[in-house]
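go over whats below:
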Amino acid sequence: MRRFWPWILAVAAIQNFSSARVYESGHEVPAFQPQAALEIFTQVIAGEQLHSV
């Protein structure tokens, strides 16, 4: 797994709710940080809790 730091820095998980803060991405993460967006998407599809990489 690649490391996309410093873009994915803040991850929070409370029960079944997870959120990630992706820095330097504007309002459209896939347009500005495609690798970080793919990693988040992959984690969600795999049913994993979001975690920084």
Summary: The beta strands are 8-14, 17-22. The mean pLDDT is 78. The longest strand covers residues 8-14.
